[in-house]
Amino acid sequence: MKDxxxxxxxxxxxxxxxxxxxxxxxxxxxxxxxxxxRKVMITGKGRCNLTNNCGLAEFLExxxxxxxxxxxxxxxxxxxxTMDFFEKLGVPLKTERGRRVFPQSDRAADIxxxxxxxxxxxxxxxxxxxVTALLTDGGRVRGVRLEGGRELTxxxxxxxxxxxxxxxxxxxxxxxxxxxxxxxxxxxxxPSLVPIETQEPWVKELQGLSLRNAxxxxxxxxxxxxxxxELGELLFTHFGVSGPLVLSASAHMREGPEGRWPAGRYxxxxxxxxxxxxxxxDARLQRDFSQSLNRDxxxxxGGLLPAxxxxxxxxxxxxxxxxxxxxxxxEQRQAFALLIKxxxxxxxxxxxxxxxxxxxxxxxxxxxxxxxMESKLVGGLYFAGEMIDCDAYTGGYNLQIAFSTGFAxxxxxxxxxxxxx
Length: 421
Known about the structure:
Elements: E1 3-7, H1 11-22, E2 26-31, H2 38-42, E3 51-52, H3 56-61, H4 71-76, H5 79-88, E4 93-96, E5 100-103, H6 108-121, E6 125-128, E7 131-137, E8 140-146, E9 151-153, E10 156-159, H7 174-181, E11 186-192, E12 196-198, E13 210-220, E14 225-236, E15 240-242, H8 244-250, E16 266-271, H9 278-290, H10 310-317, H11 330-341, E17 343-350, E18 358-363, E19 381-383, H12 397-412
Parallel strand pairs: 1-2, 1-10, 2-6, 10-19
Antiparallel strand pairs: 3-5, 4-5, 7-8, 8-9, 11-18, 12-15, 12-17, 13-14, 13-16, 14-15, 16-17
Helix pairs in contact: 1-6, 1-12, 9-11
């Protein structure tokens, strides 16, 4: 029996450890936190969007960075295999809008607990500690050194320490230093799926306002091109905007060192009424106004906009708040409709990588075997999960990357029985 060390008990590491143990290896799972799968516990707002119920081609279309590298791994263990895996572990699943897959219980803890139990069932040992060095000899990995100097020897090491997002869950970028220490190239980590800071001071007035069905368009002001356009949920914050729609948009806004673009490079246009074109919206305004002819303009919008948004919209429109509705001109009304269909925000910067849902960047994919996740530079060293330079849009794709690469690494260790996904 060969010894295997898995560094990092997140989604990728726990699954890799479990499959390696199932194949007969003697597996030690090293985790710096007291409990495994801490990041899994907070994904999907505590509900855990674990995968996306789509086919291979569509899955890869939702991976903007190094999708081809994932072809073999997702083919072997993709969304259907992941869903079957958790169902067999006793976690019933459901598919919601956008083919997003959640546990029926809406409890991320059910997924985390199932993963931990899966790793334990075939004898995988969980050791608490922080790995500070990879031990190598003759071009092969020989084990790891823990903080405090303790060394663990192994025939293979799978590093799954995550990126730099949500450091309180243990994703502090330690794995990048480990990989770099043995010769790997690290693509500089950058925030992906991250909230956006905006210039306009009025967003602070809207803090906490959630728009459940808004349209969002991202315009590159340098090229004049729209780089993203979608419908979904958007949240105003004290610094700008967040929510699923904004997180997805941020993945299309990548340039400059560490993914930070120049202030003013992008403009966000929010469509507050995506179900109405300009003509229908103007007709709606005329109908609403006809029922409020003697009211002040600011008091005539309760049926159209959320209460918190009305003072801001009125101010931006330039229409005097106390102007009677029957005095609003056709030109003013039509200009107001344009504002509702294109509320503009100037982007200043993405929020720090620590606040991102996932990290873009990591170990260069050209230095990893895409079928096995083994290092091309150091024998017996494998990588899985977010620390590889692959990331995707929101919708369960990133956790699926963790599961696919974790399975690939756990199933590729030489010796032991091969498993089917």
